[in-house]
Write a structure and sequence with these properties.
about 525 residues; 18 helices; single chain; about 0% strand; two-stranded antiparallel ribbon; about 70% helix; mainly alpha
Amino acid sequence: ASSRQPLQQPRLRQRRLSQAIGDFGGSCFIFFVLIATSSMVNFDSGGTAAILVSLSKGCPEESLRTYGQPPQIQSYDPGYPCLTQDFKGYLGAAPYIGLVCGCPLMGFLLDRWSEKMVLVVFMLLNAAATFLFAYQSDKWCMLAAKFVIGLTQGSISIYAPVWVSTFAPAANKTLWYGLMQSAAAIGNLIGYAVCGYLNSIKVFYQWGFRIQAFYLVFATIVLYLIPRNRIDASSIEETASIEEIARAAANSGTPLSGGSHRHHHNHRMSVQSIVPIFDPEEEPEPAPDSSPITAIFAPLKLLAIPLYVTTLFAICSLYFVVTAIQYWASEFFIKAYMRPEGEVTTVFVIVSATAPILGVVVGSSITDRLGGTGSPEQVAKICRVTFIWAVIASVAGGFAGLVPVVQPGEDSTDCTIRFYLCVVGIWVQLFFGGAMLPSISGISLESISVKNRAMGSSLSMLFQNIFGFCLGVYIPGAISSHEGDMVLAMQFSLCWALWGCIGMAAAVFFSSRQAKAAQLAREVEGTAVA
């Protein structure tokens, strides 16, 4: 017995610490851990954007012009990498390509294993890849590390919205959706600010990424200590089937909100039902098959749901614009408006810190005040409001792209005015893009049945990373490299928001059709009862 006591004491301390962490703040504490960790896995993307110009400092001076880098911007330093404009685009796109490759795998693993253990294992791998990126300056090692970072961060990026749909309080669900979907932007902002300011005071660029790596290790330990039943959505059992709740909603003719409750380990959690949005006959039933290959490609069947597809299309357009701005705007401002790095970093941090986050808060608040998305009629209403926001964001982006750039020898006052006019246009675009995000994210995920949301989140992440993040990084770099014009690249990126208007217009059409069908069904049901 005495020999077992030393082994039991650490386990007892671990259980007590795990219980203390799990009990502290309940779902609010775990939400904070998830959103902080989801943000920090994107730290390197913003950090890379902030030091993008410096990633050519390792090139000999005579080759800078060949690589599209004016010699007067940076002095030669052999300790830094030597990257071409094309390779900078590859480096920025690598984590998103990794996410694309990892999304089907993560959806498969999260559906069959404990969500907590999948998160912990892949977060450890993510931290290891971040350490590699933070201590290597060879361009191929950097590219490989970025790919693995994206491949492994898919676990938390995919599962965090699913956790919100299961554990978030009904009153805060829309806001939590928006904040969780904004985690990438928040992480980009933090990385941009930290690495940008370290770079401006001549601190070696890798120190910012080392800070990120150590934080990820700490966050993984915290996730490991949280009780499994507080993280795993699969540990929660529903008390009523989807069909039963849907029939109850049709009979009563009232929106469902907080109508179903789940019980587990003496916890009572209100779950906002989205069943009226979901049509069981519209969603294909995945065929039962134990084949891993079939299971990985099963989410593609969800593309038969019109509202899911149209809102996903709008989200991809939104993320394309946001990613292009976050990754290329600094270099664009420095070259096109001849602004110093310190001013660009300060202005862009202010814009990134205020516009999208305020947009998320304001947009989610307006959605809740308008009645939320608890019925098909409400979904149609919110889609119409969001379409208006998409139009405003598109107009603001077009305005920012059309502000004339600075020519050598022009008056400094005119240069400053043009620079800040462009910044104002980008701020408005990011604000209304942020306002759109909570509503369309919730509608997109909640248009799918509860049992298929992990698959739906995985498929959403796949398309967002291909057509949003990855292309948003690569296409402006390719245009700049092949056309020799960063201005054209940014104009193209800012006007891409028009695709979001098209997506939301289609969402308005399909949601209005669903609302009319639901109203007709209630009228028929009422006539039959009478």
